[in-house]
Hints:
By secondary structure, the protein is mainly alpha-helical.
Amino acid sequence: MFEHYKMTEKDKKSNFSLKVFVILLVWIISVYAAITFIRSSDEPPCKSESLPVRHKGVCKSPECITLAHQLHNWRDVSVDPCENFFKAACGKYNEHNLDPETRFNTKTGIVARLIEEFLDKNLPSTSNSENAMHFLYQKCQESNKLNATVIAEQEAMSQLELIRRIGSAPIFERNWNESDFNLNDMMAGIAELGRDQLGFFQFTVINQYLVISRDPIQSEDLATGIKKILNETLRLTDEKPDADQIGRDIQDVMKLNKELQEPNTNISGAIHLSTLQEHISLDLTRIIKSRFDPRRKEEVWRRIQNKTVVLIDALYYSNGKKNLETILQSSSNRTLVNYLMIRFLISLEKQKTSGKDDCTGKVVIKLPLAALRMFARNHFDKENLQIASDMVEDVIESFVETIQESSWLHETTKQRAIKKVKNMKKVIGYPKELEAPGTLDRFFESLNLSDINMTYFETKIEIERFRTIQSMNHFATLFPFESNDRYVVANAFYHPTLNKLSEYSSQFSK
Ligand SMILES: *[C@@H]1O[C@H](CO)[C@@H](O)[C@H](O)[C@H]1NC(C)=O
Ligand SMILES: *[C@@H]1O[C@H](CO)[C@@H](O)[C@H](O)[C@H]1NC(C)=O
Ligand SMILES: *[C@@H]1O[C@H](CO)[C@@H](O)[C@H](O)[C@H]1NC(C)=O
Ligand SMILES: *[C@@H]1O[C@H](CO)[C@@H](O)[C@H](O)[C@H]1NC(C)=O
Ligand SMILES: *[C@@H]1O[C@H](CO)[C@@H](O)[C@H](O)[C@H]1NC(C)=O
Ligand SMILES: *[C@@H]1O[C@H](CO)[C@@H](O)[C@H](O)[C@H]1NC(C)=O
Ligand SMILES: *[C@@H]1O[C@H](CO)[C@@H](O)[C@H](O)[C@H]1NC(C)=O
Ligand SMILES: *[C@@H]1O[C@H](CO)[C@@H](O)[C@H](O)[C@H]1NC(C)=O
């Protein structure tokens, strides 16, 4: 179990991988450090002398050989280290690690391999978060076996199901019944699926605020999106309206969008949600609450209602001549529904699959905290943390020694390098809160992967819903972690500007 930190036979092996990992890590950092000071120095850092090469021990275990092989491959032997040390040492790193689809790969190759090993084993687990990782991984692998036609077909079916779940829209259904229509119900339904973008406005967490702002889209992108979605879904239903009606509906949607995208240049600033609520027929409070953890709805609301603001730009259009309420009132229900539904479906486009996915990468990016917990559990016991920390110290020490003894660096460069390495801060480990047993699993209860027949697309949408819930819990300070993959790229980062080996890089986002 997670709460047990005693070393088992299995852990000893991973403890070894950890050591190798840390050594590798520090090695990379050293190279970085070297480059950084070399770059900041005006004089050429190398003297034209040959490098002394010392062989200390030879590695024999499979793990070590694998890693050694990797390091070996990262070198670019065609480059003279005195010309360009970085290129010589790791010039081929990108070639071996860069998958243009996932930036993740370039940074966390080693962590990824450990996580992949875990995912491939697929041992039964009582942990919600581990099971979620396995579920997503399996759905991804299943999807990779399908051809594009079949995947597109599945995604179109899910799309149609979602349309019906939220309440349908006349552009997709001839028998749409206007008396069933309720804009608040529909928007709450979309918000319940964790969507940030609701067409008429969107949600973003900025610093200490939940901000409601405009949800912009270019006319051309809207037109393309409409065409694609209609083409995908209308083939699957016998209830479609006739072509003329669809044409008129599209025109109305485009016209409404034009109004909603009109600039507002002379009114700016932000107001409190409660101030706005008096002037608008949308039930904003209900819509916002729909994005919360159902188990903690009132608690979250109590904590964040005073931190929810609306940008005035989201309310006033056409330089204050119109506002959101007058636009809603002057549009037909038919057009409002069509617009909302289409914007919802366009917001899901990002979850669609194109080509083969890197399944481990997807798991880490979509379930970063689960991945981190797994990694912490299997590869970071407390003893290891100390070992890792000691090892970094050792390696830093020997790096300083190496610099001091080197004959190929100028004296000033040497001194700078040593200063820099000695000042390097290290942060090894993971968020301490992860140590409390069950902390993460308790928050995974709101992720619903109970239907084994879910498609990969549906699984990704459910995980997005779950992540919105988590992010609101975090914003309300009920949940200590930010659902962000930077925790996992963790342990592999050196910040050149901060001279800090840290838990995370700030380059990654959801
Ligand atoms: C895709 O797979 C399905 C089912 O396996 C098959 O019927 C279909 O011919 C394939 N399509 C293409 C373009 O390969
Ligand atoms: C629309 O729904 C209402 C109640 O939900 C029903 O009374 C009415 O007959 C329906 N109209 C049509 C055309 O189906
Ligand atoms: C739009 O729908 C609402 C709620 O169902 C209804 O009260 C209103 O009369 C409808 N508007 C129009 C123009 O039909
Ligand atoms: C509609 O989809 C089919 C494949 O399902 C595709 O061949 C066709 O080009 C699409 N049409 C448009 C207008 O996108
Ligand atoms: C929110 O603000 C109102 C007045 O602006 C205040 O009375 C209330 O105590 C605040 N609530 C919280 C939870 O801070
Ligand atoms: C904004 O500018 C428009 C003209 O461009 C003007 O009619 C309107 O009164 C202005 N609104 C405010 C609040 O200044
Ligand atoms: C989980 O999802 C299934 C459908 O996929 C649904 O039937 C079930 O009610 C959901 N459970 C919860 C607790 O929301
Ligand atoms: C999943 O699909 C299988 C085969 O199509 C079906 O027998 C089973 O009832 C489905 N399970 C659920 C939970 O829908």
